[in-house]
């Protein structure tokens, strides 16, 4: 059996927009397609290749997992990993292969990659994959014919029950399982709300700065976004009352304002609830990472103060587990359960039942709560290490905001640097960042970088990345 060497693939490009795992995938696939690697050839182990290339082993394993999923390679235990025997490939059509560094338009606000500082990603290296695999195997073995039909459009009853119990204990939300609707993500939750409670032409308060995809969702649904300024106490409710006192809804992130990470103060929470009750408007509480507060215990949800049934609570598993699970949930007022059931029957196809069963088991056996506790401690450590590493290198050029929680840092750029231009250069050099000005309506706001810290494992790593960032400044 011929053994392929790492030099079989062309060198990796650290300046490419493509992440390393994708470059490795493309190079092996190209080598197989061109005949450089033949069926039956053994390829280097992930450990060996990681050592030779100076990369994390998980990066190599991700590339190999893609190749195996598409049938290019096969793992053969102690015999190693080989190019799939008998593999027959057609010659590639010119112009169809994505090359490293090519700029491909994305349809998502967040890319499907793993880059340094990438927003929206939890600590993927710390996820309990062994526990997850064991539960997954058990769920698969327990599958019966009734589990293989169309999934319930409102969500698996077991998962809805586990979510309701978790929210009661951790977020102070008193709800029944029937009020919990399982969705495929924040956008799906917002789509259900729009179909059930809103209509074209409605005005909706949005935080400014605020999560850009929400503005785009409202635009596509022909609703009018009303930007409401944010200060150190969260959304300035008084400004919303001046701009659009009879708005149909408000979308807020009261736990950690997205992206400034400030918390909505109690007086403003009460003012917002009073406005919704008086006008008959709706409040959408996007609690995307409320579990991660480091200066004290997580704050109770705004929904826990709702006595008039005007708050819809949107949560997600993406930030606690991993984005690829594509599961989120929406808690609706009891009076609206029937309406949301009707809308779900019409517009929802239901999330995969196996995934829901797996998450339900993960929660039922206590793994979910333990994982949140571990991540809260880990993120506090990584936040401190990342901030210290960045400040030691970039201290003269940036100021890092003090924040009580969240999963990212805000680096205020000193002088007249453009955060958008810097972010564009970061992407060209294989780093990720988001420009704070992109989160403001009209793009007018303070210049700052938004950098995720959850996958930065040490101060040393942060300092190395900071030196790369300094060169771009």
Q: How many H/I helical runs?
A: 14
Secondary structural class = alpha/beta
Task: Summarize the biggest pleated sheet.
Answer: 8 strands, mixed
Strand order of the largest sheet: 4-11-10-9-8-5-6-7
Uncertain regions: pLDDT < 50 for 5+ in a row?
A: 91-108
What is the count of β-strands?
Answer: 15
Order of helices and strands: HEHHEEHHEHEHEEHEHEEEHHHEEHEEH
Rounded average pLDDT? 89
Q: Based on CA inertia axes, which overall geometry fits? A: globular
**Cα end-to-end separation:** 50 Å
Question: Per DSSP, what share of the residues sits in E-state strands of 2 or more residues?
Answer: 5-15%
What is the gyration radius calculated from CA atoms?
A: 24 Å
Helix content: 25-40%
How does this model look, in words?
This protein has 473 residues and is of the alpha/beta class. Helices cover 38% and strands 13% of the residues. It contains 14 helices and 15 strands. The strands form three sheets. It has an eight-stranded mixed sheet, with helices on both faces. It has a four-stranded antiparallel sheet with strand order 12-13-15-14, with helices on one face. Strand 12 (398-400) and strand 13 (408-413) form a beta hairpin. The chain starts with 19 loop residues before the first helix and ends with a helix. The relative contact order is 0.12.
Compose a concise summary of this entry.
By secondary structure, the chain is an alpha/beta fold. About 4% of the residues have low confidence.
Q: How does the SSE layout of this entry go?
A:
Elements: H1 20-34, E1 42-43, H2 46-53, H3 57-69, E2 73-75, E3 81-83, H4 129-141, H5 157-170, E4 180-183, H6 186-197, E5 203-208, H7 212-220, E6 224-231, E7 234-235, H8 237-243, E8 249-252, H9 266-279, E9 282-286, E10 311-316, E11 328-331, H10 337-347, H11 353-364, H12 367-394, E12 398-400, E13 408-413, H13 419-428, E14 434-435, E15 448-452, H14 459-472
Helix pairs in contact: 1-3, 2-3, 4-11, 5-11, 6-10, 12-14
